[in-house]
Write a structure and sequence with these properties.
The protein is built from two helices and 34 strands. The chain starts with a helix and ends with a helix. By secondary structure, it is mainly β. The longest helix has 7 residues.
């Protein structure tokens, strides 16, 4: 159950009243959280320089109002497990945006309890968010960061050592800029039904796709480095991807791909200009399913029959 403001203050000794009733403030320090940190309805959270919250295994931070977490390079706000891992952060239906600056989130798992499943280690659903200079490390969740039906901006943020996908955006709109993704066990950026600009990102050692656009997504990737992934950029299922002035290094399957995974959507389109292929022979530059469109430096690449299911393993 959601606590009242008074109940939250009694339950969590590290919290204090803010200037008004719209947010609680975390006292400066390094705090162990007993159980879930559930915020009162309509009440956000404010945390400042050097604040650390340590959570029990499976525990979460849950709210329906903005989280304003403002650290610095020398004194970030840290959301950590007390031991090995914890559930993560969930923000649902917050009308005003959350602001995260110099925030470290580590060792999340997502939520599986009593039939409630949340794939994201950090989730913003119908809740706008702006992040800069943040760090997401060692997530074991299906999605390290999941943004659902929300506007967002992510700048100078690091995603590292994720067990599965790093950033998953479902029906969202926003931009990712000057950020890094490395040692990712799934996709770097996985987009569905979204409108997203990706600019000046570095992606290295991505197990599957560096950037993938599905289910009528529109994505532009500019001035980026995509290195050592199965695929560089994939457009599928009525999506449109544009790749501009980007370097793609040693893709294991294809640097650029367009195909249909879900036949109910139909063919995809990808255009690419100013592409620098490194350690990439002709056979690994493009993969185009018949009926889809891929234009590389203005030239249309012929499509062919492809067993798309085989691209996703057994």
């Amino acid at each position: 159950a959601r606590p009242t403001l008074e109940e939250a203050l009694r339950r969590y000794p590290f919290l204090e009243r803010g200037p008004d009733t719209t947010a609680l403030v975390v006292r400066p320090g390094d705090w162990s959280v007993q159980g879930d940190l559930v915020l009162p309805a309509g009440c956000g959270l404010v945390a400042g320089l050097g604040t650390t919250l340590r959570f029990e295994e499976g525990a979460i931070l849950f709210g329906d109002a903005p989280l304003r977490l403002e650290g610095s390079a020398d004194a970030p706000v840290r959301l950590l497990p007390r031991k090995d891992r914890w559930g993560g952060v969930i923000v649902l239906h917050a009308e005003a945006p959350s602001f995260w600056h110099h925030v470290l989130v580590s060792a999340t798992t997502g939520i599986t309890r009593g039939g409630w499943l949340v794939s994201g280690g950090t989730t913003f659903e119908r809740s706008p968010v702006r992040m800069s200079d943040c760090t997401f490390l060692h997530s074991r969740a299906e999605d390290t960061l999941n943004i659902v039906r929300s506007r967002f901006a992510i700048t100078r943020t690091e995603f590292g050592w994720s067990a599965s996908d790093a950033l998953d955006v479902d029906f969202g709109e926003g931009e990712v800029g000057r950020s890094s993704f490395h040692d990712i066990g799934g996709d770097g950026i996985d987009l569905s039904g979204s409108r997203v600009t990706v600019e000046a990102v570095r992606m290295q050692r991505i197990a599957d796709k560096a950037v993938t656009a599905g289910e009528i997504t529109r994505v532009t990737v500019r001035h980026s480095l995509l290195a050592e992934s199965n695929f560089g950029v994939v457009s599928k299922d009525l999506s449109q991807a544009e790749v501009i002035d980007t370097e793609i290094v040693h893709p294991r399957i294809a640097a650029l791909a367009a195909y249909v995974k879900k036949p109910t959507y139909g063919p995809a389109t990808l255009t690419a200009d100013g592409i620098r292929f490194v350690e990439t022979d002709e056979a690994h530059r493009t993969l185009v399913q018949a009926g889809c469109t891929l234009r590389l430096e203005g030239e249309r690449i012929p499509g062919r029959a492809i067993d798309v299911g085989a691209l996703y393993g057994p």
